[in-house]
Amino acid sequence: MTDDINIYILSLFHPKNKQRSSSVYQILRGKKTASTLSFCLFHHLWSGFQLFPYLSVEAYEQRLAELKAKGYLVADEADGKYLLLSQAGQACLLEHPFWMAFSKEVDHFSYGVAGPLFLERLLFLSQVISELSYQSKQYEPITSEEEQLFWVKQWLAKTKVSKEGLISNFYTEWQKLLEQLADSQRQRLVSLLTGHHKIGTTYYQLQQMYHWSEFQRIAYKIYDCQQIIHLIKTSEDFPLFASVLASIPKQTISKSAQLTYNYVEQGLDSVSIQRLRQIKPSTVQDHLIEAAVLLDDFSFDACLDKQVVLQLETYEKKQPQIIEWQFKQVQGFDESISFLEVRLYQILKVKQYDRENFRPTS
Amino acid sequence: MTEKTLDPLAKLLQEVFGYTDFREGQRETIESVLRNKRTLAILPTSSGKSLCYQLASYLLPGQTIIVTPLISLMEDQVSRLRQLGEKRVTAIHSQMSFQTRQRIFSQFQQYKFVFVSPELLVQDWFKEQAKKGKISLVVVDEAHCISQWGIDFRPDYEWIPEFLKELDSSVKVLGLTATATQKVMEDIESTLFHQQACHLIKQSSDRQNIAYQVVETEDKTAYLKQFLSQHPGPGIIYFSSKKEAERICTLLQEETELAVSYYHGDLSNQERLVVQQQFLHQQLHVLCATSAFGMGIHKEDVRFVIHYHLPSSVEAYVQEAGRSGRDGKQSLALLLYRPQDEHIHYHLLEQLIKEKEGMAYLLKQPEETWQQYLPKLSSLQQKWLTGYTHQRYSKETLMAGLEQKISERTRHIQDMLTYIHLTTCRRKYLLAYFDSESEGQVSICCDHCGLEDLELETVPVFPRSPLEFSKDWQETLKKVFNQRE
């Protein structure tokens, strides 16, 4: 019997694209560096970013050893530090569709913190609107946090529709949302709702009722949040819910990297930015990689010379597996190309591919 | 006091709080606050301590600052005041975002009630605001924290006197606690009031409707199941570990017909409030909780409080046991004991001794070498060191304080064990512990006096399964948002 955490870790590996096991570990711990962010993008591992912030190397290695012993993961012949998903591993994953979906659809980098907070706000607002629909003012709110109370007051004040319109629209959004979810998710979300004469439940209580493991409880909550967020972001049917989502900042580019990128947008070159910000060349490089990975509208044109792009396109024809490129090999092809240019080109191409294949990028 | 001056109190009690009578000690406390500069009120659990400062505040012109040890307690008090219709209430604590604090400060003077966590009292920005405001009263809730938790747990409480010194001399101070031995009382008087005279209100800690029992057993869960089959609650079972609370909760869910849930510090604020509401509104028979549950939670009909593990002190035990029987009906405080339960407390004590010894070693080293030891220090040791480097105490005072803390902890464990192994009346022991006196003969007192006549009223509980809402989710949704066809 393989436990849920092992199944999930297994789902992070690929049958063809070999992955360095230590890089996967850094992602699970949530190490936010240019290198791990690129790795996350290349191998589509956003679901795992900081999912286990306290995972020790020993515990992680133990889990990998178990997966290898079962023949689910195999070491790459050329370099044992790289792992591949075996056929047996693929067969095992097919028996666990939830973990495959979780791995594929969840963006724990952007919404690991924001997702649960969004759900809490949505549930609190639902309670407030439910009580409003019964014209009830005497009730016990399901939050006592000053920030949440203030937020809900502000949200209601900003809403331009009439009270009746608000209640009806809010109800309709819930209805449309639930209609689009799987039965099990719908059950969970309806049971979580607190309103007039209805006290909700908690994921902890659902865990006990359905005999979930602790990790399942955490994962179901994350997955539910992600699904709701996905529906809200991809449809115009949820303007009220979207405004709740907009009130919560998702994790994105660091302030320092943003500042560096702002200078790039203003037309400054790397040397000027280094001087202006008094930072090392490698830091500017890291900032630009971070920005390229995380910003949807990153201006590749501003950072990649057309000639370089043409050169790399030629190289790509020879080596189409972009994410496996080694910088030294690219240099062997054209020594004038820098590491930053190679990395930015890789990011550009992976993002293009993901967009064409509807794969969410963080 | 004349009838004329008494009337406004009773009138306010009815108008704002909806009660017709004061509970014992409330009126005396309120009157003392209005008349005196310093009041210390020691009122038993469930005596309505919060109402004392709330009502007094309405008769004072300025703001009331309430220093509260726990954020959850603070937020609970804010909610309760809001439910009474009071909008001029807020809480400020260190976990708030900078923006929220700024927003509160921008309208600081508009608040009548401001709840604060003690660590904020040393912050300059808070002191500035407090000086600008018009403060009439400072309430130190759970005032025993100054003594009981002292140097290791709540050093923040020691900053209160310093804060008080900076306020206008006319500001009144009220210390409130439910559990204070003579020694703790003296500690509060000397620390909080600088030995200055304070008006003391002390009510007997005797809760006559609570019977006390200790059961020594090797199989606590078997005993629990048997007990619950006869007494379905509502009741609280206290645990000293979150994992055990979860484990026993699952076991009771699976092996009894009761609706059981758990409550501990890992639950989010929203999850805690949902479970709390389920318990308050008769949807749960039993709550398996850690000490995170309790302070400020008012459920009248809790029929029993069971301690699955050995409480850390008699004070903690009486506080938690006192959450039963707020409605005055017969209730039970049951402690389950298995020999060697005390080992965990002795283990923690040993850790404290080691930390103290480590601290003593560090203080003997040249100060310039301390930096290299910092990563190895425990969080407690870091707090002690910060206190010293901020010149809040000398090396000698720190070490003497730690010695005292260790001997107090040892005494607390021993006192708890004495309570367990008593062969005489448990109530008398508890009353003597708090230098309190019995309020009269108690017919159902404790296991040594005889519990043959003990009957705990069964309160109807209506468990709700999450599934019942999800079967017809559309109907549920319509009901939640009051939508008719």
UniProtKB/TrEMBL annotation, chain A:
Q: Which organism is it from?
A: Vagococcus humatus
Matching entries from Pfam families are given as: HTH_40
User: Where is the Helicase Helix-turn-helix domain positioned along the sequence?
Assistant: 256-345
The entry's protein name is: Helicase Helix-turn-helix domain-containing protein
Q: InterPro entries from the entry? A: Helicase_HTH
Automatic annotation (TrEMBL), chain B:
What residues does the Helicase ATP-binding domain cover?
30-198
Gene Ontology CC annotation, any one? cytoplasm
Q: Which residues form a coiled coil?
A: none
Q: Name one GO molecular function term.
A: DNA binding
Q: Which CDD domains match?
A: DEXHc_RecQ (cd17920)
Record Pfam families: DEAD, Helicase_C, RecQ_Zn_bind
Keywords for this protein: ATP-binding, DNA-binding, Helicase, Hydrolase, Nucleotide-binding
What is one Gene Ontology biological process annotated in the Swiss-Prot or TrEMBL record? DNA repair
**What is this protein's name?**
ATP-dependent DNA helicase RecQ
